Amino acid sequence: MRDRKQRQPMVVGDALRNYLARSGLGRRLAQAQVIPDWLSLVGPQIGAVTHPESVTPDGTLFVRVATSAWMSELQLMAPQIMAAINAGRGAGRIRAIRWLLAR
Question: What is the DSSP string of the chain?
């Protein structure tokens, strides 16, 4: 019979955090969290005319915009929006925003 080390029980949340950190999935989850948090990150005015679609592994966020006028405005505001997104625990999770005209 194999001699196994006795391990202390671990809290499931701690085990999951360790796994996410080792696998690199923690970073992807932080990036993806931008999508459900979008409205609170950009506010109701911008949130009303935009819809975040996806985040690539390299940190590019794709966002649909209602009109070309808003798209032009948001391109100018991109540095402030990225700063809001990356503030605090999300530091560095989004590196670029691509604004796409709504279909």
Answer: ---PPP-----HHHHHHHHHHHHTHHHHHHHHTHHHHHHHHH-HHHHTTEEEEEE-TTSEEEEEES-HHHHHHHHHHHHHHHHHHHSGGGTTS--EEEEEE--
Give phi and psi for 102, each to the nearest 5: -60, 150
**What residues in the chain have per-residue pLDDT under 50?**
none
Residue 70: domain span: 12-101
pTM of the model: 0.76
Interatomic CA distance for residues 98 and 87, integer angstroms:
19
The predicted structure's pLDDT at residue 3: 57
Q: Note whether residue 69 is domain-resident.
A: yes
